[in-house]
Design goal:
This protein is an alpha+beta fold. The chain has five helices and seven strands, in the order H-H-E-E-E-E-E-E-H-E-H-H. Helices cover 24% and strands 21% of the residues. It has one domain.
Length: 172
C-alpha cells in the first residue's frame, strides 16, 4: 500500500460526514508505519474504542483515490476463548475474542436512514500483518495450513474486502 497522509485518509471516508471524519483519531504511529506490509489500513479509534476505520488503496468503487469507511466496533464482551472464529477477510483463525462483528453505515441516504452492513474481521483489524506472519493470533489450537503464497492470500483478502466495500459504497 502506498503511504497516505492524514488528509488523504479523512477525504477517503465515504460513509460519514466531514465532521465525523475530522473527529476520527488517526492510528498511533501513522507517520512511521511500514506501509509495504499493509494491503489496507485498519484501526480502532484510540479516543473512541467503539469506532473503527479502514482505508483501502485506490482507485476503487468509482473513486480515483483510496476508499475509506468508518465502522462501529463491538463493545468488549466476556466471550469464551475456547471457540475459534475465522476473519472474513484474511481467514485467520482466532479465539472467539479475536474476531469481531464490525458494522458500517451505508454511504449516502440509506446510511443516514440507519441502514448498515456487517462483517466479521480480526478484532485488531491487522489482517495484513497476519497474512505476512508478522503478527500471530492468540489462538492456542493448530492453525490451518495454506499453500497459497503471501501475494495470493493478499489478493484473496482484498477481493473479500472489495466485496464488502461495494456493499457499503454502492448504497450512495
Amino acid at each position: 500500500m502506498e503511504p497516505l497522509s492524514e488528509k488523504q485518509i479523512r477525504r477517503s471516508l465515504v460513509n460519514c460526514s466531514k465532521g465525523e471524519a475530522s473527529r476520527l483519531r488517526m492510528p498511533a504511529g501513522l507517520a512511521g508505519l511500514d506501509w509495504e506490509n499493509y494491503d489496507y489500513l485498519g484501526w480502532i479509534d484510540p479516543g473512541a474504542p467503539l469506532r473503527a476505520a479502514l482505508v483501502a488503496p485506490g482507485p476503487r468503487h468509482g473513486s480515483d483515490g483510496p476508499v475509506g469507511i468508518v465502522l462501529r466496533a463491538p463493545a468488549v464482551s466476556a466471550s469464551s476463548a475456547t471457540r475459534s472464529s475465522l476473519c472474513s477477510i484474511c481467514f485467520t483463525g482466532h479465539a472467539s475474542s479475536g474476531v469481531s462483528l464490525f458494522v458500517a453505515p451505508l454511504a449516502g441516504a440509506r446510511g443516514r436512514e440507519g441502514d448498515s452492513a456487517g462483517i466479521y474481521l480480526c478484532a485488531d483489524l491487522a489482517c495484513s500483518l497476519y497474512l505476512r506472519g508478522l503478527r500471530r493470533p492468540a489462538l492456542r489450537t493448530r492453525q490451518h495450513e495454506e499453500t497459497l503464497t503471501v501475494a495470493e492470500r493478499s489478493a484473496r483478502a482484498m477481493a473479500h474486502l472489495d466485496a464488502f466495500l461495494a456493499k457499503v459504497v454502492s448504497a450512495a
